[in-house]
Amino acid sequence: MQELRIVGISGNVKAPSRTSALVAFILRRIESELGLPGRHIDLAVSAPVLFRALRADQLGEEGAEIVRTVERADVLIVGSPVYRASYSGAFKHLFDLVHYEALVGKPVILAATGGTPLHGLMIDHQLRPLFSFFKALPLPTSVYALESEFDSYAIASSDIQKRIRAAVRELELIVPHARTLALARAEEQSRLSA
User: pTM, whole model, 2 decimals?
Assistant: First the structure.
């Protein structure tokens, strides 16, 4: 059976980053609870490659591979620091390059980090509409973490860990469906290449 492609995207533009740490923690939780390893795209590293192009058809091979990885994912974990009441510009630029039909029906765990509890509204006012545009399936439980809920770059809050567990449980409810889609895709690709 083909493994599901789990992709985490951190919209931070500096390293180290609490956002990157949060996305990595969610990826590790998915791997430990569901046995599904994932790939982590950290925009602090990848954004300079993506910024070389304004449109997808201008991307070099390295940038195109990043966009293909996002488009071919079966599940996304997306996180951004809150910047001026929204996600980062690097995060937006990546999704400007993703084909508008590539994420239809794909489950997405939404996450963000910020300095005040009020910034947590960004998830519902910015991230959910973005992934609704893509016709993806944002899970009901999102994860918003304050700077004060980290010890350096490690999650120190049991409340945040509880929300992550809840989001992973929601993902587990729809993983059998996603697994079926992945198998169907693999069978179709094998028929086409035969």
Answer: 0.88
